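Sequence decides. Our protein:
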Amino acid sequence: MRNLRAAAPASFLAPPAPPLLLPPSTPTPRGAFSAKASPAAAAAQAHGWCPSPRRVGRLRRRAGAASSSVASVEDAKKDVLVALSQIIDPDFGTDIVSCGFVKDLEISEALEEVSFRLELTTPACPIKDMFEEKANEVVAALPWVKKVNVTMSAQPAQPAYAGELPEGLQKISNIIAVSSCKARPQDNNKSVLFSRVGKSTVAVNLAYTLAGMGARVGIFDADVFGPSLPTMVSPENRLLVMNPESRSILPTEYLGVKMVSFGFAGQGRAIMRGPMVSGVINQLLTTTDWGELDYLVIDMPPGTGDIHLTLCQVVAPLTAAVIVTTPQKLAFIDVAKGVRMFSKLKVPCVAVVENMCYFDADGKRFYPFGQGSGAQARKVVQQFGIPHLFDLPIRPTLSASGDTGIPEVVADPQGDVAKTFQNLGVCVVQQCAKIRQQVSTAVSYDRSIRAIRVKVPDSDEEFLLHPATVRRNDRSAQSVDEWTGEQKVQYGDIPEDIEPEEIRPMGNYAVSITWPDGFSQIAPYDQLEMLERLVDVPRATTAAVSS
């Protein structure tokens, strides 16, 4: 990513675009609130908690919003929204009203009964019960309210990216890769001890954990050479069938989780070359009628080769990745390689699962690979900024569940292993929600100042770019000759007052910008950051730019 600081061709830089229409406001310190926010909402957001009804009353009186009665339904709705704005989503760091969670708000004609729906980003939200409880509390605390009806729901399953996705993937919200990044023994002459780290075990149990949290889940076994799914689960129908009308593959199902594996195609293990394998994976994944899914867990094949690139770039834009490893130093060499691969492909790694860390016997805990072996995992977490690390023990039941066809989290939902997977599931849900939120709001167009807003990742800062600058610096083959580097689109070809018609995210790495002339520009985030440095645009906090 740092190589983008290199000097760009002259045709890329000249001539400069007109100055940006910057807002007259002065940047405020980080963490400042928008001037449009109510004092009560600002106080709640600053502290990051959900206040008690008594505290809500004090905040509302301080903001001048409280009253013993309301004059109209519209005033009553405003009153309810002010109360609900005290509830802060801990993942997004803002109130549920600003997040757009409050839907179908209705007030009775007598101005006594309030009904509304909270539409969360996922049905697997780990704090949905807290949201429901707090919403009841803060609204019931209004002096004129006698009854509150809260309904909980989740957003329809839909991808967070634009582009021509295959029909089978158009109703999937999040695609999670579970990878060990290790090659097979026959590929690299390593011992069998290091070839199996429990990747498939983690993938299957994670999928059923997410299903247990209320999500719609599917599993795709992308290992064509040695599919594990047919052994680890026991669906009644063990053969994939094709819909004769739509020519789509119908996934098999077990305990409410949809699944597809080459092992269910009646072919056993495949013997074929790399390009053929990529084609098989492409067909199985994209032509399957998955329906609406909140999470599709992909059990990645071993290694970091062509199949992985196909899955990450061509077939399915991945939301996030979970890395599975063991405590040995040799395993972490492969982990580092895999994390770098995902990083290069703009796929965030949200967790590392260290399998076979220890076992308990005779009331004692033993570490077969050394008690300090966990330092290797912590080193990777710190080096690559992966936010979470989970340990799994050597447990006979966990191993046996992979042979009996019943996942461990299903066989023993209250056990220690299930609790670890529950924590992993919560992590995946929260991180995916953050990623989707960041992607959906990373780049937008502000018509009031005629500028493209670009939010800086992991920061409350943003910068502005003139639309003409972005359009003139397109580096695709339609704008620049691939052989000579000659600029096809000249400076004067782009009008100064050009405005984008639509900006949509393209996975985690770019946005698609549609212009009035019909041109669809793919603008990587890295390129937009480089433009910022080239035109020397000052950054400001989001609140300062918004005020």
About this structure: The chain has three domains: 70-154, 167-184+195-436, 442-530. The chain is about 35% helix and 20% strand. Confidence is low (pLDDT under 50) at residues 1-54, 56-67, 184-195, 542-547. The radius of gyration is 26 Å.
